[in-house]
Amino acid sequence: FSHLVNSLSNVRHIYSRSQCYFDTWPRAGGGYTTDAKIGGSVKPSSYDIYCPGTTSEQAGKSASCQGCPNQTLCASGATKAPDPAIAEIAEKLSTVKHKILVLSGKGGVGKSTFSAHLAHALASDSTKEVALLDVDICGPSIPRIMGIEGEQVHQSGSGWSPVYVDDNLAVMSIGLLLSSPDDAVIWRGPKKNGMIKQFLRDVDWGDLDYLVVDTPPGTSDEHLSIVQYLSSTHVDGAIIITTPQEVSLQDVRKEIRFCKKVKLPIIGVVENMSGFVCPKCKNTSQIFPPTTGGAEQMCADLNLPLLGKVPLDPRIARSCDEGKSFLSEVPDSPAAEVYRRIVQSIQDYCSNHVTEQQSTT
């Protein structure tokens, strides 16, 4: 501990990620996610008085920059101009009608499972073109869940060709680029960001009705990157996945604050593992009793829509392990019925969101 104290003794200012990392990140068109501008230099909304600002000649070089997580980024000059990839991605995704992000505060709550089921459900309408993008760079599970493990991504003149599960359901994941599903992706933030940029810009998505983006848990580099790169496109919003326990809800509240901070609309919250429905008597038993009211109470407190409460069903896990659609395999299960209602709510939201966008333009 004393060694740590000595190491930090010369650090004048310590910034949290929420203060500096995203607040000073460039947007398309040269804007910044900040409302403070002093001396002609853009600064975080919660800036320290010694911060020179991201557009200053002293950005990343001033003594006050020591200890800031964005020092290297500011010193490189990258914050002084918008990333040209943002405009390229906007052009590439201009033929995608709806973009939906699936988030969770904690791992293991069924986020990737929900993303896969959402994609399957949307693609059950043969007139709709759907794609599922997995940006969980270090823990890609979508290839296994979608039953395409071992499939190869091919390069064409139009870019990378995604792997198709059905004629109208495409998937892209770093798991499809690995030589073995057991290979570990040991990357820091910049390499993760570069891969996400390639997925959005270099994949031949074609005309899509829905693009579902499965993200890793938490609020890490991948989340910042996907929001930044989609900043100049129309994103319908985020679906946040949780379980009834307070330990999960606590992290979900952080996820909600992240969405509000980066101005990402929240479509609603889904509570997974919400009781167990007996297949014989049809009664529901609480396996994980909600100690603080579960997602229902949280949504009421935060004025957010609760899209649904999906009960436990062992057949969901089995379908994922086998790479099959649970909704097709067990269409009459209580969980499948809840899924269908949730998906309908999401479709209604997207349709209304487009109408609102058109009325304001």
TrEMBL record:
Cofactor, how bound (note): Binds 4 [4Fe-4S] clusters per heterotetramer. Contains two stable clusters in the N-termini of NUBP1 and two labile, bridging clusters between subunits of the NUBP1-NUBP2 heterotetramer.
Designated name of the protein: AAA+ ATPase domain-containing protein
Keywords: 4Fe-4S, ATP-binding, Cytoplasm, Iron, Iron-sulfur, Metal-binding, Nucleotide-binding
Record-level GO cellular component terms: cytosol; nucleus
Stated family: Belongs to the Mrp/NBP35 ATP-binding proteins family. NUBP1/NBP35 subfamily.
Alphabetized Pfam families for the sequence: ParA (PF10609)
Gene name tied to this protein: NUBP1
Residues bound to ATP: 105-112
Organism: Anabas testudineus (Climbing perch)
GO biological process, one term: iron-sulfur cluster assembly
Binding-site residues for [4Fe-4S] cluster 2, renumbered to this chain: 278, 281
Domain annotation AAA+ ATPase: ranges: 97-268
SUPFAM superfamilies, alphabetized: P-loop containing nucleoside triphosphate hydrolases (SSF52540)
GO MF terms held by the record: 4 iron, 4 sulfur cluster binding; ATP binding; ATP-dependent FeS chaperone activity; metal ion binding
Cofactor entry: [4Fe-4S] cluster
Quaternary structure annotation from Swiss-Prot or TrEMBL: Heterotetramer of 2 NUBP1 and 2 NUBP2 chains.
Compartments it resides in: Cytoplasm; Nucleus
The UniProt record lists the keyword Nucleotide-binding: yes
InterPro entries named in the record: AAA+_ATPase, Mrp-like_CS, Mrp/NBP35_ATP-bd, NUBP1/Nbp35, P-loop_NTPase, YlxH/NBP35
